[in-house]
Design a protein that fits this description.
Radius of gyration: 20 Å
Number of domains: 2
CATH architecture of the largest domain: 3-Layer(aba) Sandwich
Largest sheet: 7 strands, mixed
Oligomer: single chain
CATH class of the largest domain: Alpha Beta
Number of strands: 13
Distance between the termini: 53 Å
Strand content: 15-25%
Bound molecules: pyridoxal-5'-phosphate
Strand order of the largest sheet: 2-8-7-6-5-3-4
Order of helices and strands: HEHHEHEHEHEHEHEEHHHEEHEEEH
CATH superfamily of the largest domain: Type I PLP-dependent aspartate aminotransferase-like (Major domain)
Length: 370
Amino acid sequence: MTVRFNSHLTSIPGYTPGVPKGHTAEDVAGSDLAQLASNESPFPPLPEVVEAITRAAGAMNRYPDPAATRLRRRLADRHEIEPGQISVANGSCDFLLAAAEALLEPGAEIVYAWPSFSMYPNMAAMTGAREIQVPLNEDQTHDLEAMLDEITAATQIVIVCNPNNPTGTYIPFAEISDFVSRVPDHVLVIIDEAYIEFQTRDDPALTVDLLKDFSNLVLLRTFSKTHSLAGLRVGYAMASPAFNGAVNAVRQPFSVNALAQAAAVEALEHGDQVQRQIEKSIIERVRIESEVRDLGLTTADTEANFSWISLGERGPEIEDEVVGVLAAAGIVVRPGRLLGGPGWLRVSYGTSEENDRFVAALGEAIELHG
Ligand SMILES: Cc1ncc(COP(=O)(O)O)c(C=O)c1O
């Protein structure tokens, strides 16, 4: 007899890490490898944040505050909502899995667009719920009407990723607001806003205002992309106290470690510097998109910290060769076939120098294989 694991395990998709096998994030930081595969911030954490982590490290003999009181209060002040509407987690991924556990079961349904964030398929797989993946429009945007059409009495969760990973495409606030108002009350609407600060079309505070009218709405945000804290794992949800209670019920009490709490509290004190880094990424976005188009390639209309690049009609055939040429030049990107979009590449923006290297190597790859 051998140990028999839960039958759901066989359907849970594995995660392919962005750092190549055998490397740690620290090796990558000290090397020539351009790590453009995980949409992280290319900027190290601010010195004040590193100091706060060092100070907190001296008290590691104690458990962290399970309620993350100080961090939740700061986030509530920042977003002008009540602390009871904020919950923090070990990265925003933690909320996706907790929401699945709290709301899904065999017979329930979850609706989301595809291609979208690779963690969503895990939610159905781990619970035995039925997933409905609604294909993106041809321009790589969400087809919100088709998503609404898929909602039934059995639907428990609908997710909209905005801007969408891996395509970077953005749904304007007016359309999000209309969508949320048309989803029936029994369905939890998760708007995954991991990249919302990089979009330049709307004020990111607008969706927060919707919380007043829709108790079935959850907004997910993270310190991983804009606050340079991907390695510490800290994300937050803005939602009804009922949602926050449900996800807390299915998670361990200490899901956000003390270093992460201290770092996030400090990072919130430096909004101006964080904003300047976001602006640098947006400037790089404009430049890279234009240089990639000069190579004769097309891209989705991105509002995120990464580009989604079509390799053309022969894309699915040449994708591996292109990724290989980039890897030989020390540049790691995500091949689209791993993200539900064969023939495409997703590249995160790095430092200006890394971005220059990426565009030059992509040019060579297209010349060789395009
Ligand atoms: C759309 C989306 N949501 C959530 C996450 C997870 O973020 P976190 O690091 O907070 O778990 C990511 C990370 O890549 C993402 O792309």
